[in-house]
TrEMBL record:
Organism name: Ornithinimicrobium tianjinense
Database matches in Pfam families: Hexapep_2, THDPS_N_2
InterPro entries noted in UniProt: Hexapep, Hexapep_transf_CS, THP_succinylTrfase_dom1, THP_succinylTrfase_N_sf, Trimer_LpxA-like_sf
Protein name: 2,3,4,5-tetrahydropyridine-2,6-dicarboxylate N-succinyltransferase
Domain Tetrahydrodipicolinate-N-succinyltransferase chain A: 24-71
Amino acid sequence: MSVMATTGARRTLEEFFTHDLDGADAAETLERVAALLDALERGTVRAASRTGEGEWRSHAWVKRGILAAFRHSETVEMDWPGGAVDKSLVPARRLGLGDGVRMVPGGSSVRRGAHLAQGVVVMPPSYVNIGAHVGAGTMVDSHVLVGSCAQVGNDVHLSTAVQLGGVLEPVGARPVVVEDGAFIGAQCGLYEGVVVRERAVLAPGVILTAGTTVYDLVRQTEWRGEIPGGAVVVPGSRPARGDYADVLGLSLYAPVIVKYRDSSTDAATVLEGALR
């Protein structure tokens, strides 16, 4: 995904940030950083995108551009309730009626270079970091973190205290992805580039990393790094191995897919049934 420069023969943003910036003109670099952050906020550039085959591909050049913003920033005082000190090129965004977003007052912040689509609601206090993309109609509930470059689809519900881990380095690492229509229950944590597919439902307290094994009781298989579309996941456990574990009755965390949503069930209904 490229953004064309404003004048004829100049390199695109992708071409500019793909190359080594050590010898680049400082003024041009600052100009390109600003253009990249603007494009990220508009949603015309994203830190990762879905291919035609359904895989999510990270755009390393976007992360290089974000890192350049930090590298070329100064640490300055900022006009913010209670005071703030941060990098000069990546301050908190100022949202207005024209953004089509409902930002409820009470301590939330959306950083420069983060995209909030029309109809997003952000409840306080929450934080959306640079490079993140939050799709139309999504609810960001209280105490939610949308980490750097995390990709959140349309009509997603991020319940209270959900944590979506961020990633800037290594630049090729895939960010956390939550696809359209997913419901992420309270105090869930998604890290290390986990992908939650469309309309999946995570019960409160589910923690997922790239190496977490998720046991699918419906299809009798196992998943790592991805939750399939429509799956309903609840926290579970399995016995730990070894004599010592047997003596103490120890068990290990093991999230479990207990059912799949059909086209007519909403997230709240299917989750209530799964937890009974």
